[in-house]
Amino acid sequence: MDYLQLGSYTFSSRLILGTGKFSNATVMLEAVRASGAQLVTVALRRFNREQLADDLFSPLRALPGITLMPNTSGASTAAEAVRAAQIARELSGSPFIKVEIHPNPQHLMPDPIETFEACRILAKEGFLVMPYIAADPVLAKRLEEVGCTSVMPLGSAIGSGQGLATAEMLNIIIRESNIPVIVDAGLRSPSEAALAMEMGCGAVLVNSAIAVSDNPPAMAGAFAGAVDAGRKAFKAGLMPKSSFAIATSPLTAFLGAKV
Amino acid sequence: MLTLELNGKQQIVPHGSAVTDLLSIIGSVDNNVAVVINDRIIRPDKRSTHQLQEGDRVEILIFAGGG
Q1: Would an 8 Å CB–CB cutoff place B9 in contact with chain A?
Q2: Which member of A6, A17, A65, B3 lies 3.0 to 4.6 Å from A37 by CB, making a disulfide possible if both were Cys?
């Protein structure tokens, strides 16, 4: 079997699902099931007695085979992210943490300096650290060196649906990395997820494209199929590109040809 | 009575209340929340014995949807 290895964890699914933006918890759970995802992100929020339906912990815990990956969204410094990670681990019991530090809500680009510092600390504390980063090959390598389990460069801005705008940089990161590269953010269509997998990504993390579609469970299934197809194509090895036509049928000995 | 700061808002609880009493007052499920008091995480097994003090800053957190 072709498993995704993250720390000591192995996953048969290479589609990681975000749980934000769904219209309600029932639809989200149906999408999780349809996606086959085994790793699912959640966010820490203050308890609000007026919004008890916001609590996704019980319903997600009831699903078999799901590991939670809390994120640090809301943190704008390394110290805040480390604190959020510690609290999240206490609640989830999961060693996974998606480090997400974006100080500017206008573009949600991750802060590379605070992210690096948070990851360095959290890796030492034994977390399986999965940082959301810009598609920067130098930063990706530095994060690998301080013990991150994966790097998660953005395909394009969070929720933008602009797809793999960073494809050239992603190719460099994939080529240079010894840890799984997971495209996180910006994907809109299953074909983009398939392309990311064909490029050699270890997995993709999808949220908005599924959550805001007209039929999230159906779209989750579509992404699952695309991720699987892209991974199989990568493993099979894509044919080389050529500037010229290379015939697939014999061009000689046609009917009436002079020999 | 004690006055606490709960998730940034004022909350009044009886003297001698433990964390579990506060959780039941606000209607939360004990094992579905993280509790942080004055920046210290209070684990579930300590919540019935950890008594709240005047002016405590209490954060009660859940997992909500997020990408």
Answers
A1: no
A2: A17
The tens-digit pLDDT sequence of chain B (67 residues) is 999 999 999 999 999 999 999 999 988 866 789 999 999 999 999 999 999 999 999 999 999 999 9
CB contact (8 A) between residue B28 and residue A47: yes
Q: For residue A252, is pLDDT > 80?
A: no
Residue B5 · residue B11 · CB < 8 Å = yes
Write the DSSP symbol of residue A144. Answer: H
Q: Which of B8, B28, B34 sits opposite A87 (nearest CB)?
A: B34
B-chain CB neighbours of A30 within 8 Å are none
B45 touches chain A (CB under 8 A): no
CATH superfamily label, A4-236: Aldolase class I (3.20.20.70)
Q: Is A98 considered catalytic here? A: yes
Asked: is B2-61 a CATH 3.40.190.10 domain? The reply is no
- A218, A219, A220, A222: CA torsion to nearest 10: 90
Task: Say which residue the tokens 């460099």 belong to.
Answer: A172
How far is Cα A234 from Cα A238, in angstroms, rounded to an integer? 6
Q: Does A62 touch chain B (CB under 8 A)?
A: no
- Domain ranges for chain A: 4-236
* CB-closest option in A45, A68, A83 to B64: A45
pLDDT tens-digit readout, A61-73: 889 999 999 999 9
User: Exposed, middle or buried, B11 (CB in 10 Å: 0-12/13-18/19+)?
Assistant: middle
**Cα–Cα–Cα angle for A93, A98, A99, rounded to 5 degrees:** 120
* Contact predicate A43/A222, CB 8 Å: no
- Mutation to test the B interface, candidates A42, A68, A91, most B Cβ within 10 Å: A91
Q: How many CB pairs under 8 A join A and B?
A: 96
